[in-house]
Amino acid sequence: MKIILLRFSSQEDSTSGALFKANDDGTKDFLCYTIEDEYRLKKVKGETRIKGNTTYKVLLREEGSMTARYRARYEAKYGKDWFKGMLWLQDTVGYSGEPFSYVYFHAGNSDDSSLGCIITGDSQENNVLKKDGWVSNSRQSFERIYPVLRDAVLQEGLELEIIDWDYPAQDEKADIKKIVDEEVRKELSNKSPQNMIGAMDIYEKISEINGNLKILEAKLEGKNII
Predict the structure, then answer these.
(1) Does one domain contain both 102 and 207?
(2) Which of 41, 50, 224, 225 could connect to 175 by a Cys-Cys bridge, CB 3.0–4.6 Å?
(3) Which helix (H) or strand (E) holds 210?
């Protein structure tokens, strides 16, 4: 089974989205709203969403402290056979390739509930107006979609496609340039007056960085430069 997360609003502190089930006939069934951490080109722990425009396999994780909490909660409510483990995204990475560990679907209310995970909800507030984003009736939504996704993992396999409608590629290139410029400023500021590099050294360094930037931009466009 395939599910699709459509990210449609990327703001300074949060990402709003909607989750769908993809059907064999091409139609899609709405499952719930989502809230995640914000977009960052370079990962900041606890403040960054995972890379989009990517497909991840989903498994069930039976270990861990969150698994233990959810198992205790749902065994008391639904019996021991209902909860089989956290819905766990595999091989998750950031936009610069940094690895993420233990990214789950789970309940919560805002991006403060997430450390890169996907929070579910049955209603949603505009994260342009509420910077941390907000979903309500989160446990209700989780309890509704969990059996569907759990059974898919156990019976046929489950994959999640994340589509970034909210952050175009040209903005990603601009972020790369920002990071490169910051590295130049750091290098220059670390030089003491008696060891200040000369104008030619600066020119050569900037030329090297511009060359690396062109390679990065080409990679984003799917080109290879030798």
Answers:
(1) no
(2) 41
(3) helix 199-220
Q: CA-to-CA distance for 65 and 62, rounded, in angstroms?
A: 10
Task: Note every long-range contact of 203-210, with CB atoms under 8 Å and residues 24 or more positions apart, other chains counting.
Answer: 209/180, 209/183, 209/184
Q: Encoding tokens for residue 32? A: 């719930």
Residues 74-114 have pLDDT tens digits of: 999 999 999 999 999 999 999 999 999 999 999 999 988 88
Hey, CA dihedral for 221, 223, 224, 225, is it positive or negative?
negative
Whether residue 87 sits in one domain with residue 44: yes
Domain boundary among 137, 167, 197: 167
| 226 part of a folded domain | no
Contact 160, 3 (CB under 8 A): yes
How many structural domains compose the chain? Answer: 2
Indicate the range of 118-127, 135-144, 200-209 predicted with least confidence: 200-209
CA atoms within 13 Å, Cβ hemisphere of 212: 13
Q: Do residues 87 and 58 make contact, with C-beta atoms less than 8 angstroms apart?
A: yes
Q: Lowest mean pLDDT: which of 28-42, 52-66, 132-146, 165-179?
A: 165-179
Domain span at residue 6 reads: 2-167
Q: How far apart are CA 120 and CA 141, in angstroms?
A: 6
Is the pLDDT at 11 greater than 60? The verdict is yes
* CA-closest candidate to residue 127, choices 37, 30, 3: 37
Rounded CA-CA distance 166/31 in Å is 20
